[in-house]
Write a sequence for this structure.
């Protein structure tokens, strides 16, 4: 049986797995903090940014920015 030495892709893949694990821990902490605030403090903050949008031009601009971000990531993923 041959034993192969690890190559650069091995380290890159493991680094991505570590980043993914860190994101899972961070998101779990955020969710648990939100549940704690809801159950024990009886409050969960509202999204104040969306409450401040009043004019239709701001809504149109927000839709434009979102569409550009989606387009950017779709081009990034699909080439």
């Amino acid at each position: 049986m041959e034993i192969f030495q690890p190559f650069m892709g091995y380290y890159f893949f493991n680094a991505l797995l570590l980043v993914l694990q860190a994101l899972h821990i961070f998101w779990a902490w955020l969710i648990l903090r939100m549940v704690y605030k809801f159950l024990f403090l009886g409050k969960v903050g509202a999204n104040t940014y969306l409450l401040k949008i009043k004019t239709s031009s701001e809504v149109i601009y927000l839709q434009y920015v979102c569409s550009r971000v989606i387009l950017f990531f779709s081009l990034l993923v699909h080439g």
